[in-house]
Structures are given as structure tokens and as C-alpha cells.
């Protein structure tokens, strides 16, 4: 028979402690972090675009300087080649350094500088 006053109550409820934020809060956090990440990517793209523009303009402004430097170098090499030719052919009578050895006008001008 049951004791007077009945049996003690059975604890059947789950006693789980609080295990963190809810799914909605996690979703909101992920959304916030993703939004901030896209914002930073956008800023990085703007910066990259500005750097590319600056690089292009710096190259555009450097082209005349680089062309002049190349022309000076080609002239210096051509003069050095003439001096070498003058030194090598000094014993040949009637030799003119720099003058073409071909008598055909098609082959007379050298327009390509080999470096």
C-alpha cells in the first residue's frame, strides 16, 4: 500500500542548462559578419581600382622618359660600334666606318637596332 500522503513526486522534467544563443541570434550574427566582410571587400576593391589607375597614369607619364633613355642607349651603342669598326678596319684603305657595304639602296639603311 502507498504510504500516507502518497509517494514523492518523480522528477521527469529535463534539467538542461542554457546552452548558448538561439538560432535566430546566430543567424543574425552570421549575417552581420558577412555584411561587414562584404563592406570590407568593397573598400578593398575601391582601393585596388585606385591603385591600378595610379599605376596606369604613372606608366603613361614615364613613357617619354623611358623612350628617351632607350634612344640615348641605342645612340651610345651605335657610336661604340662605329668606334670598334674604326679600330678594327683602320688598316683597310678607303674604308669608311658606318657606311654600308651594300650598293643597293634597299639594303643601305639600317632601321633595326639589335641590342
Short description:
The protein is an all-alpha fold.
- The helix-and-strand class reads mainly alpha
In DSSP terms (H or I, runs of 4 or more residues), the helix count works out at 1
The number of distinct β-strands equals 0
Helix and strand pattern: H
* Mass-distribution shape: rod-shaped
> For the terminal residues, how far apart are their CA atoms?
115 Å
Helix proportion range: 55-70%
**Contiguous uncertain segments of 5+ residues:** none
Radius of gyration, taken over Cα atoms and rounded to an integer in Å: 43 Å
Mean pLDDT: 88
Share in β-strands: under 5%
The biggest beta sheet reads: none
Task: Describe the overall structure.
- This protein is mainly α and 115 residues long.
- The chain has one helix spanning 23-88.
- The longest helix has 66 residues, at 23-88.
- It is rod-shaped.
Any descriptors?
115 residues; 1 helix; rod-shaped; 57% helix; mainly alpha
What order do the helices and strands come in, and which of them pair?
Layout: H1 23-88
